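I have been asked to look over a protein record a colleague put together. This is what I was given:
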Amino acid sequence: MSQIELEKGYVASRVYQDKSMGELVNQIIVNTAVQSPLLVDNSDLMYNATKTILGKTLSGFLVKKTVGRVFTGGSTFEDVLVPTKAYNQRGIPVFLDYVAEATAEHIPTEEEMDYFTECFCKSAEIAAQHKGNGISIKFTALVDYNTLKKTNAVQQQFLDFFDDAVNHNAEAKEASLEALFNAMKKKNPNLEKQAFLDYIKQIFRRDVNDITADQKISRFDWRLNTHIFNISPEMGHVSPLVQSFAKLDDRDMKEMKRFTERLDKIFSTSRKLNVEVLCDAEQTYVQAMIDSITEQFGFKYNNDTPIVINTVQNYLKASKSRVLFEVEKCEKLKQPFALKMVRGAYMVEENRLAKEAGRPSPILESLQQTHNNYDSNLEYLMNKLDKKSQIYVCSHNEQSILKTIDMIESKGISRSNGGVKFAQLMGLGEHLTIYLHTMGFNVYKYIAFGPTDIMMPFLIRRAQESRQMLAGSRLQGKLLKKELKSRFLNK
C-alpha cells in the first residue's frame, strides 16, 4: 500500500465525522499548539503558572475541557467510560491506562501504591465489559522507586556475569562454570566455592560437586533463569549467593514482597476476566528488574493465552537480542509469545545520563536506525507468529504502519485475527486508528486517564520526549480542517 492510497483512504472515510463542532474546533486548536516546539518545551512552565494564577481547581477544569478532551479519557472512572463506550460501539477495543507512576518529584507512598493496585484492578473490570479491551500498567506505581533501582543494579550485574565470563564475546553461546565463578569472585572476593555450587544446583537444577572448565551453561539458560528476586516464596525470594551481592535489608525485602503481591493481584484479576495487561517499559536503570518480574509472571499466567505482555523499546541497541530471546524462550516453554513494540519514550533522559556517566548511550545513534530496527524486529516476530501469539504494533509512524500492512498481506496473515494488532494513543493518530479499523485490521485505542495533577505532568513529559510522534499531528490537522470545511460547504 502506498502513502497516496493511505491518505485517500483517510479522506474517503472522514475519520472525524462523529465529532461535534465544539470537539472539532477544540482539537484543531490543541493540534496546532502541539506542533510548536516553543510551546511543547515550555508546557510544564505554562501549566505551573496557570495553577499559580488560577488555582488548582480552576486550572484543572480548563485543562480537562481543552487538552484533556483531546488526549485523555478524563480524570475519573466515570469519565473514562464515555470514550471507552464510544470506541467500543464503533467496534474498536481499547486499552485503559490509569496514569500512575513514580517520578523524580514524587515516589508513591505505600497507601498510594495499594490504591493504584485497586485502580488497575477496577480498570480491568471496566475493560472486561467489552470483548478485546485490555489495560496498561506501570510498575513504578507499585514499588518504592529506590528499591527498584537498587534491585535492578543487582539484576543487571548478574546478567552481565555471563558476558564477563566469555570476555564480552557476543558470539559466545556457552560459559564454563569456572569462568562464571571467576567473574563473580572478581566482584565479590569473599565468594565461597560452595555458595556458588549451591546456587547452580538451586537455580539451574544441576547436580554439580565441583567447579570445572568443561561444565557449561548456555547464554540462553543463564538469561532464562537469572532472576535475583523470585516471585515464588516457596523457592525463597532471594538466594544466599544473591544476597551476598545485593545486601538487601529488611525494608528492601518487604518492599519487593509487597510489590510482587500487588502485581499478582492485578494479573490474577485480569486472568479471571480474560483481560490482557500491557506492562509498560521504563528507563534502563529499572528495566532489567521490570523484565525479570514480568517474565516470572508470564511463566505463571501465560500458559494458554497471553495475559501478561511485556514491552520492547526498539530505540535500544539491545532490543534485537531481546526479541530473539523472547521468541526462543516461548518456544522452549511451549507458550505463545506476546510483545508490545514501541520505539521508546526516554531518549533525552537516557542520552543525558549516559553522557554524564561517560559511557556509551544505550540508544541507537540515529532516528533512521531506530525506524529500521523497529521494522526489522517486527518482521522477525511476524515470521514466528502462531495461532495464539500476539504482536502489538504501537506506532503513529505511517511508514512503519504501511510496511506492517504490506508484511501482513504478503505473509497471508489474517487482518482481523492473525495476531498482529495496531494501537495508537487517544488524541494522536485518530486517522490511522479509524482507517485501519475500516480496512478490517485489528486496531486498539490507548486511553490514558486519571487525576489532572498527575495526568498533565505525564502528558508533558511524553510530548517533550516524543517529538516524532507529535510530528504526525500535521496530517491530523489537515484532516481536521478538511472535516470542518466540509461541514460549512454542506450547509
Remarks:
- The chain is about 60% helix and 10% strand.
- The radius of gyration is 24 Å.
- The chain has a mean pLDDT of 87.
- The longest strand covers residues 443-449.
